[in-house]
Structure formats: C-alpha cells, structure tokens
C-alpha cells in the first residue's frame, strides 16, 4: 500500500512532466517558461531573442560518425522538381555556398522601397543558412523566386546542379501585438499560406485570414521580417516599420 505522501509525490511528478509540443508552437525565448520539447520530426528554431518555434523538418540530426545530410526537394528556375543533398536543417546550418553577387537566371533580388529600410534586401541570417528572414545590406542580398506558392531562396553556387534551395516558412502563431507572423528559412517547404508576386510586390495569403493588404510586411528588431496582418501604416507595433517588398532584376544588387 502506498503511503499518502508517496501518492502525492507521484502525482506531482506526473503533473510536472514536460509535454511534447506540436509543430509551429513556441518552444523557447527570453522570459519563456513553457515546454521546450518539440515532436520527433521537428526542431526548436530560434526566430529571435524572444521567440523560438517548433518547425517540422528541423529535428537535430542523430549522432553519427559521418556528416549528416537530408534530401531536399528543389525547384529549378524552369519549374522542374529535383532532389539534392543539403546540410542538416537545424537553425544556422549552412545549406549552400550561395549564388554570388550576380543575379542567376530565373531569380530575383527582393528589396524594400520605403524608409527606414530603403533598398534593404531580403536574405537569411545566417547567410545561406536555415534561420531568420531579415532585410539587410545589398552586398549580402539573397536571390529568390516564387514557384508553386513557395518562396524559394537559391543557396547553391553558380552553375551548381542540382540547385539547392531554402524555403520561406510562415509560423501560424500571432506575435507582436497579435498583428504579425514570423518568417524564417527552412529546408522543408512552407505549409501555412501561399506566396505570390502581385505586380512586382511580394504577397502572402492564407485561408481564414482576411488581410487589409496582402503585400504588407513589418521589419522589426534585428531587421527581422514579419507578415503584417493589420493595416498598413496604421497601428504599427513599437520597434517595427511598415514595408512593402518588391522584386528587382538588375544584374547586381545596388544601394
């Protein structure tokens, strides 16, 4: 027979066991006190100092004596689907050496055109790696295309075949005044919403959310890019700037 104290202890320990988080749930960040364990196929990806997220396909690789790799579905500029090998999909894993500072056929630069981020260019942080989507200097601009509702970033070197890509992924959890969604880069395709070019502007839409402006974005602390769910130039969260971002196809990015 268990004593009363033993029963209480067992119940307490059971009640404090960590839950396994679902995909896209928060798993860390400054002042965060919730659960941190992601599902088997997901990894806890750092979006910014205050928010980390369970992203499918970002599970840390199992211990091995050989360099781990993952099969990455890639799409060429002509739309053909290929498969290739990339680095592990954990945050900051380098996916490729990058296409250089001359625009490759079938791809675009993407940049903002409003102050305070005039001619700041879309890229990944770290560069050519899984992690945060940011607007940064033209000297480190990424190269992009929208293929089949996916925003893809070319990360393989010039002429390298098959092409290697990272995917722009959107987290469904609302952040910053309940008006924004985080954007990051992953080796697996986006599953929440659709990217498109409307004219030269980059848009994002999803069933169930009616956005006042599908081309509205925020650039916040650390130059991180978010989708703006609110009104453009109205109710802007503190520390953020309203932006629209547009493709640009000169041979070289410029300031």
From TrEMBL:
Q: Which SUPFAM superfamilies match?
A: Cellulose-binding domain
Matching entries from PROSITE patterns are given as: CBM1_1, CBM1_2
- Keywords per UniProt: Signal
Pfam families named in the record = CBM_1
- Coiled coil region boundaries: none
Q: Which domain of life is it from?
A: Eukaryota
Q: What is this protein called?
A: CBM1 domain-containing protein
Q: Taxonomic lineage per UniProt?
A: Eukaryota, Fungi, Dikarya, Ascomycota, Pezizomycotina
